[in-house]
Amino acid sequence: MTFKELGIIDPILKALKSQGYTHPTQIQKQAIPTLLQGRDLLGCAQTGTGKTAAFAVPILQNIYLHNRPNHRGPRKIRALIVTPTRELAIQISESFSAYGKFTGLRNTVIFGGVKQGKQVNQLKQGVDILVATPGRLLDLISQKIITLDHIKYSVLDEADHMLDMGFIHDIRKIIALLPTKRQSLFFSATMPPDIVALSKKILGNPQKVTVKPQQATAERVEQALYYVAKQDKLKLLIHLLKTKEADSTLVFSRTKYGSDKIVKKLIKAGIEAAAIHGNKSQNARQRALSAFKEGKVKVLVATDIAARGIDVDDLALVINYDLPNVPETYVHRIGRTGRAKASGIALSFCAQEEKTCLRDIQKLIKQKITVIDDHPFPDDGSTQDSNAANNPQKSNRPSSPTTHRNNNRRRKNYKHRNKRRRDSGKIN
Ligand code: AMP
Fold first, then answer.
1. Residue 39 CA to chain centroid, in angstroms?
2. pLDDT in tens, 132-163
């Protein structure tokens, strides 16, 4: 299958060729014909799959063929692409420029955190395609610098990322301003219920396209599992970070609040760490990431969605502080290590309430993860979580003094065992 066979017109074919694209990627093969026919599209795909060209190429072609600017009046914005971050917005705008360089169509990009002057000047010169982050877009609409009245094509990119960053109200406002007669595209890497609900508000009867990114093979990564009670996870994390002394560790936390809490405790324990998640400002995330890349901070604590933007290839260690409830996420997470190196290390914590997640993960990877019993905070399955202890309704099991004694005994055994080993010179 070639781009020509997908029905792409010559000026765009020429540009794709100059980009070195010989064949369309999977998502391009699926999305381009649908979009050229004018249908709505729901794409379950993330950056790295060739997603940008999958929407940019047909949008350019549709505008070129059906809505080309004429000389009688100023250009009107025909296509709007809304994306969560400045980096993505710039990348998308550059792609439009590259694929559309022989079409005569113009695009520009707007985002917050910088003065608006330059962006306004670009807009005043007239553009056909606008790539925007939500806040700056609404700001310029309220100043009457931008109108969405002539939009024929709208793209909501990285919708899950957008919701994670708290843009839901902005998105709703933007959607309300769009003309009803338009072609809508909606992309998200994951499709939890709130995203599906949002997509239904935006799309008519969409064609659905799902493309999974190339998955790292779990076999290449050395994996280990620690059964640990929820309230002991932090202590185990600190213990592992101090004993493993890896150069770069990525810790996955299920929640944004959780990652902040972990970072606070690590810093208190003398471990340099930073959190990266959707509630952090763009600048704060960028700072954390740069410090991590430069090795100033050895531990980065991230939520799954925020971690997608982390472009670090030689992670020494990945720690799943919380197990993900979507098993494929486990494979993505551990694929963050062992890319550049022959193999990486992924350690996972599993509390009682995560055993179902563990079962699903092991089923997916068709492997039993090696269990490490020999650690100072083992959970024999009977330790209660502190929430449950305070709230009997949350507890599955009645509190038992025997079980606490069991865990304390295990901890003491671990300490004695280690002391014996140290004395005999087996560990240092
Ligand atoms: P994206 O998912 O849009 O961020 O694209 C990921 C990378 O793949 C970018 O560097 C694109 O330039 C590149 N790319 C997209 N489509 C193709 C293609 N058909 N052939 C080769 N590279 C491509």
1. 27
2. 999 999 999 999 999 999 999 999 999 988 88
